[in-house]
Amino acid sequence: MTKSEVTQIKIGSHKIGFIGLKTVFDEMAALFENKSDDIVSEELVQRLSINNYIPEKVKDKYGRAFTCEFRKFLGQPFQEEKSEGMEIKILGAGCPQCDRLEKDMMDILTEINLSADLEHVRDLKEIAGYGVMGTPALIINGKVMCKGKVPRKNKIIKWLEQARDAL
What we know:
The protein is of the alpha+beta class. Helices cover 46% and strands 19% of the residues. It contains six helices and six strands, in the order ββαααβαβαββα.
């Protein structure tokens, strides 16, 4: 098995690898893009259970996570599962500005001693799912804080402190 066959997605507070996720998404894209989330969830769990172990008591939770990833894959709107801690996303394909925002964010998190889930989303379809057209974009706990520019560090610190206080 090659590394490209395994895709990690976040379920709850854990990242879990699944074999064949993108292949199943490709197979289902045309037939299921307009189906309800419940139907999509059931089909994804069924298909992914063939090559992955999915415990019976968490099938619903996995199904919701699969559906969210499927909607991202299609570039459709989606609702992410709520995280228990601070969640930060940098949206951008990897241009120098996007990379600078990611580095600034890591430096700031270290500087203010704040623990957070930091993810750099580079996939264009997934970025489109957030409704953000300009990159880089910064999302803190599901809220778009800025797009199309790298904000000043003191502004980022203010946003992080407000988000921390809201938890």
